[in-house]
Amino acid sequence: MVKSSVSRMLAGNGLFYPIIGFASFIAFLYLSFGDLWVNYSKEINLSFVERNGTQFYVDGKAFYVNGWNSYWLMDHAADYSTRPRIRTMLQASAKMGLTVCRTWAFNDGGYNALQISPGKFDEKVFRALDHVIAEARRNGIRLILSLVNNLQAYGGKTQYVKWAWEEGVALSSSNDSFFYDPSIRRYFKNYVKTVLTRRNIYTGIEYRDDPTIFAWELINEPRCMTDPSGDTLQDWIEEMSTFVKSIDRKHLLTVGLEGFYGPRSPKKSIANPEVWAADLGSDFIRNSILSTVDFASVHVYPDHWFHHKNFEEMLKFAAKWMLSHIEDGDRELKKPVLFTEFGLSNDNEDFEPAQRDRFLKMVLDVIYKSAKRNRSGAGSFFWQFLVERMERFNDEYGIVPWENPSTYRLITDQSCRLAKVQGLLSTQAEHLKNFCAPRN
């Protein structure tokens, strides 16, 4: 009744439609630029993560990572209907005591592409990445940002080769020409420079100056199978890591390896899952030992690598796999080792929910023991965490952690254990003090 009377009054004065039009305009501005009005002045102060030998440090204290993967953050931030998921994920993770998220800072040539074509960027998607970084900062979460995919998902090296081929400058249509084609290398360097020097519209900080970013990752799971000697990929890593460091010397850098030992490694026959692993063109030691690479990365997917082992055999292998790489970090690399992806598929024929928790606990236990002994195993990252109503983004490894009480307990227990070793970080204190105290 009141609403209709007001409407008649405004209409009688000829003001109804102008006001409605103005309101629509304001709504449009909010949908387009609404985050510019969000108060980002209350972010938690973060310091850069540094490395000294085999350990990470923050403000002079050892820093061990209980982290996770949510590769989809930028993509979902680009659509206002899904943008709230970023805050939900980051807030929930902070409450679990998680400290670092690994996510994609790339999307090449597809839907919600950050890089539409070589050197051409979508400002809307860049603002989405700005939003992700600003939200992470507000919640005291650091980010590992990966710069390109070896796989075809979200463009990857396949898209770079396609662009060069379409422009008539490609040397080869092989996906692996990404690593050696001069034109494609220029494409990628331009992309890297654009991202590293981007000024966040919400915080006013260039990415290369923002301690919210834990590290850059050159490429997710690099393989160059057309050159199993490893020389092609090694040359690319040397060139690109040097290029990144020429622009940004404040942040740490890793390659993004799965951890397989190459044909020249004495461990190729005793630590690799199977013979094929030595012929992928990568080599954990050789690729990671470069002075421009600050820490090593390893993935742990025994059920993906083996097809004829039972769960107990895979669990035993995974533990041995982790310890082998921690040994490498201590003795060969003299650098920290992060297990940046680990998971167990729920599509395995003999899968039982309890198996996943046993596998996760094994990984977390190895990291905790390494931290207690000041060894190089510096942290781990679950693959992957989702929020509700994201079923189509699940790849058989994903979980909504707060919907799985036993898994949730494992995550928070690890946060408490690492906090006991390193001391509570200032960003964790509010969330962890209450529920860690009874456990300690």
Write a compact overview of the structure shown:
The protein contains 14 helices and 13 strands. By secondary structure, it is an alpha/beta fold. Strand 2 and strand 3 form a beta hairpin.
Please characterize this protein's 3D structure:
This protein has 440 residues and is an alpha/beta fold. It has a single domain, classed as Glycosidases (TIM Barrel). Helix content is 42%, strand content 12%. The chain is built from 14 helices and 13 strands. Strands 10-9-8-5-4-13-12-11 form an 8-stranded parallel β-sheet. Strands 1-2-3 form a 3-stranded antiparallel β-sheet, with no helix packed on it. Helix 12 links the parallel strand 12 and strand 13. Helix 11 runs parallel beside helix 12 and helix 12 runs parallel beside helix 13. The chain is globular and about 65 Å long. The relative contact order is 0.12. Belongs to the glycosyl hydrolase 5 (cellulase A) family. Its main location: secreted. Pfam families: GH5_mannosidase (PF26410). InterPro entries: GH, Glyco_hydro_5, MAN-like. It is found in: Secreted.
Structural class, from helix and strand content? alpha/beta
Number of helical segments with 4 or more residues: 14
Strand content: 5-15%
Total DSSP E strands = 13
Q: CATH superfamily, please?
A: Glycosidases
Give the uncertain stretches in residue-range form: 1-13, 15-41
Count of spatially separate domains = 1
GO molecular function: mannan endo-1,4-beta-mannosidase activity
GO cellular component, one term: extracellular region
Keywords: Glycosidase, Hydrolase, Membrane, Secreted, Transmembrane, Transmembrane helix
Enzyme class: hydrolase
